[in-house]
């Protein structure tokens, strides 16, 4: 009964049951009598380290020293001293014995000896990492000695641990004491728990317990000796067994040897102060130490120093230990970018370091920083992100792209910088597959509609290519409304030859989305006109596209003949080799990974461009294997060539974009192409009527009358009202060349069956004859039908002033003299 009550009383305090952490597996080594275990938080599962020290009774000397270490660790704070989180002391009953245990919870760390084995560094990289670690421990010990007037008393390999970012930190504060040098004659111990220190780590005065000599020596004398022991254990790779081994300097680097010897001086007053070691040691002057130091004081550097440093960092990172770069430099760089202390050139180093991570680590360590940077107002940061979007775009989730990234990228579509508009446009090739249909239809297509009339010809060309690329991500209704209008009404009428070529290739690449009626009435008539385009490359692609669509029409005809009544849309046949070059052209700068950010902004299409490459396929899948150049003739002045009206004009049936273009309107599905009507679309006739017209019997035409008078235009008969080809024929699209007059004469013989479907001969003049004049001609005058129309000008009306034919007096300002003449006889 008494034992039960004792357990209840002991367990009611801050015992192990109340420890808010789970104790895990122990590490094989730890300082002194402590046990170093892995651990996790019960609240959030975060990693921690748990140190435990047990004794048979509460008055045990080890427990007393452990309590001193807990108190010191709780109160001393420094970046290179182990961070304290929690501590408790518990009584654990094991059968008939009671065990007192102290627990210290700290940030997650690993013993230095274990971390060195894990990293496996060799040669220069090992020396650079050791230099960085010794630099950190020297700063921690210097802080204790010079600023805190404290003596650690047991600096060695076992008293150093390594964090997850590979920083070295000092712990094992059980022996830590204040240094009191005022009473030099006193022989009382300076270090109360010096008996915990192994004899091999003690300097001669401490080994002899000469406290008077210790009080006369500087505060750093004991810890400088300990740092020398740490250096020996690091480079020898073995634990120090006896003091005499310190004389073996074969393992010590030459640049560190003079400082090593001064640290281990037999005279305490001549031992090297660690603050001077930090400032003056040649060993600490290496690329790793200098790089990390620059990153840690980045806020104190000016913009010129930052830009110079970050431009060198990508190449420098390749020379540094890879694990240190990923675990130390990368977090520093991400933090600097998030808080604005790093400039845009740092993005190149960030993406290069990120490429060395696994996909899972990249999403956890780099992507959160990138998503935050998209909201930056720094234009240089936005340009850098868009230039490297192909390196991280695949790792972004659809929800993040749709909700957090696209709203910021969309601001670039209307930016005053043409280069930023173009980068924003080309980034959609990576981001569009992750956008929702609501965002594509309600927002993205509105921006693309505006960019297709951009003042920059390269942007207009790339917009056409992008629409062809993302066609597979549009729903069927949107494709019907957008594709043909975007490619024919705007692209094929652009005054920039590569834009017209891109329109032809986009139509070919998306041929699987059009039915045969659209191909016959809306696509082929617009492409055939480009067979006489001033640009040779446009003509070549036009002929290839015509062949492709005619082949589709022939396949449809064969299906109809075979009795296949299934819907005959585009078959998605592979493109003609000459047109197999759509998608890669728009992304030509982004496919040069690692070079886009190092080069000047690229202009993909302009009047001086000599060659533009392009890639595509029928299903809008990126294929960079086939690149076909689009040659822009530099010797021909494009401004002198007959071209269609400029796409920037609003006279093409597109209408003005509303002022709310830059704001997403999810309540409306309009995308900027809704106000475009097809070019004089006519209702197609029924197929039965066409077949009936073709089955008419062929009758020989009557001989012409001997009279020279031609037949005048009469009211067409009912049979001629059934002329179905006239209704089917699509008008020629507007081009820069003179359009043919497709109006057929209605005065042909009723019995001439071919007359109803024969194409009229081209007329030389663009102005047709006046039909009214023809109808009003005298039947007796054989020349009346071809006589010139009467002049349209009218005679000037008589003046309404006094006198016939006299012009009225013009109005004059000011006083005037009037000459009144009297009438005779008055």
TrEMBL record:
Residues 782-797 have a biased composition (Low complexity). The keyword Ribonucleoprotein does not apply. Gene3D superfamilies: Leucine-rich Repeat Variant, Phosphorylase Kinase, domain 1, Transferase(Phosphotransferase) domain 1. Residues 628-826 are annotated as: Disordered. HEAT repeats lie at residues 366-404. Keywords: Kinase, Transferase. Residues 2-284 form the Protein kinase domain. InterPro entries: ARM-like (IPR011989), ARM-type_fold (IPR016024), CIK-Related_Protein (IPR051177), HEAT_type_2 (IPR021133), Kinase-like_dom_sf (IPR011009), Prot_kinase_dom (IPR000719). Transmembrane segments: none annotated. GO terms for molecular function: ATP binding; protein kinase activity. Residues 736-747, 767-777 have a biased composition (Polar residues). Residues 661-673 have a biased composition (Basic and acidic residues). This is Putative inactive serine/threonine-protein kinase scy1. It comes from Cocos nucifera (Coconut palm).
């Amino acid at each position: 009964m008494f034992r039960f009550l004792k357990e209840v009383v002991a367990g009611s305090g801050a015992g192990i049951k109340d420890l808010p952490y789970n104790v895990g597996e122990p590490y094989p080594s730890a300082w002194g009598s402590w046990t170093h275990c892995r651990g996790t938080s019960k609240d959030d599962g975060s990693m921690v380290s748990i140190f435990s020290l047990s004794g048979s009774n509460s008055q045990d000397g080890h427990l007393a020293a452990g309590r001193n270490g807990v108190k010191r660790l709780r109160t001393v704070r420094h970046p290179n001293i182990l961070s304290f989180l929690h501590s408790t002391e518990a009584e654990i009953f094991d059968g008939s014995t009671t065990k007192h245990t102290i627990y210290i919870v700290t940030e997650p760390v690993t013993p230095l000896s274990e971390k060195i084995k894990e990293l496996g560094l060799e040669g220069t990289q090992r020396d650079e990492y050791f230099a960085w670690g010794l630099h950190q421990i020297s700063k921690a010990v210097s802080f204790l000695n010079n600023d805190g007037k404290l003596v650690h008393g047991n600096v060695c390999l076992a008293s150093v641990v390594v964090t997850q970012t590979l920083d070295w930190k000092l712990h094992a504060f059980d022996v830590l004491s204040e240094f009191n040098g005022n009473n030099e004659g006193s022989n009382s111990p300076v270090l109360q728990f010096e008996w915990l220190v192994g004899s091999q780590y003690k300097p001669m005065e401490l080994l002899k317990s000469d406290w008077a000599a210790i009080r006369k020596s500087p505060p750093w004398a004991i810890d400088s000796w300990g740092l020398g022991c740490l250096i020996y254990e690091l480079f020898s790779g073995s634990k120090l067994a006896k003091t005499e081994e310190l004389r073996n300097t074969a393992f010590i680097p030459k640049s560190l040897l003079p400082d090593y010897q001064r640290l281990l001086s037999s005279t305490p007053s001549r031992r090297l102060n660690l603050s001077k070691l930090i400032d003056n040691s040649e060993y600490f002057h290496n690329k790793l130490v200098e790089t990390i130091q620059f990153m840690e004081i980045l806020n104190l550097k000016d913009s010129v120093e930052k830009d110079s440093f970050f431009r060198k960092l990508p190449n420098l990172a390749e020379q540094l230990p890879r694990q240190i770069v990923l675990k130390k430099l990368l977090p520093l760089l991400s933090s600097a970018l998030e808080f604005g202390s790093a400039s845009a050139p740092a993005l190149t180093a960030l993406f290069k370091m990120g490429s060395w991570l696994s996909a899972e680590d990249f999403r956890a360590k780099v992507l959160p920083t990138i998503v935050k940077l998209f909201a930056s107002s720094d234009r240089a940061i936005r340009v850098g992100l868009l230039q490297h979007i192909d390196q991280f775009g695949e790792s972004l989730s659809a929800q993040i792209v749709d909700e957090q990234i696209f709203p910021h990228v969309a601001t670039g579509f209307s930016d005053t910088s043409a280069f930023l508009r173009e980068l924003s446009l080309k980034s959609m090739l990576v981001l569009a597959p992750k956008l929702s249909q609501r965002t594509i239809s309600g927002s993205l297509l509105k921006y693309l509609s505006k960019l297709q009339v951009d003042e920059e010809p390269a942007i207009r060309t790339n917009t056409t290519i992008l629409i062809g690329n993302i066609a597979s991500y549009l729903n069927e209704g949107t494709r019907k409304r957008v594709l043909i209008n975007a490619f024919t009404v705007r692209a094929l009428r652009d005054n920039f030859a590569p834009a017209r070529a891109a329109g032809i290739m986009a139509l070919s690449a998306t041929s699987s989305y059009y039915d045969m009626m659209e191909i016959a009435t809306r696509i082929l008539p617009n492409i055939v006109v480009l067979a006489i385009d001033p640009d040779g490359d446009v003509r070549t692609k036009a002929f290839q596209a015509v062949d492709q669509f005619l082949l589709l029409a022939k396949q449809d005809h064969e299906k109809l003949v075979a009795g296949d009544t299934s819907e005959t849309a585009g078959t998605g046949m592979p493109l003609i080799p000459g047109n197999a070059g759509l998608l890669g052209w728009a992304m030509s700068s982004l496919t040069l990974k690692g070079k886009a950010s190092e080069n000047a902004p690229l202009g993909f299409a302009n009047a001086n461009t000599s060659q533009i490459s392009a890639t595509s396929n029928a299903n809008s899948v990126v294929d960079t294997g086939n690149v076909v150049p689009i040659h822009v003739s530099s010797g021909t002045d494009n401004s002198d060539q007959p071209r269609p009206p400029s796409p920037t004009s609003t006279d093409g049936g597109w209408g003005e974009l509303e002022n709310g273009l830059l704001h997403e309107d999810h309540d409306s599905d309009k995308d900027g192409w809704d106000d475009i009507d097809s070019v004089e679309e006519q209702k197609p006739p029924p197929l039965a009527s066409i077949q009936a017209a073709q089955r008419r019997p062929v009758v020989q035409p009557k001989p012409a009358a001997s009279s020279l008078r031609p037949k005048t235009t009469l009211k067409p008969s009912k049979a001629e009202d059934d002329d179905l080809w006239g209704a089917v024929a699509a008008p020629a699209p507007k081009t820069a060349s003179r359009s043919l007059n497709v109006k057929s004469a209605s005065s042909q013989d009723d019995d001439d069956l071919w007359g109803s479907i024969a194409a009229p001969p081209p007329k030389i003049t663009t102005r047709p004859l006046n039909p009214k004049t023809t109808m009003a001609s005298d039947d007796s005058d054989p020349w009346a039908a071809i006589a010139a129309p009467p002049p349209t000008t009218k005679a000037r009306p008589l003046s309404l002033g006094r006198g016939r034919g006299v012009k009225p007096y013009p109005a004059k300002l000011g006083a005037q003299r009037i000459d009144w003449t009297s009438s005779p006889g008055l």
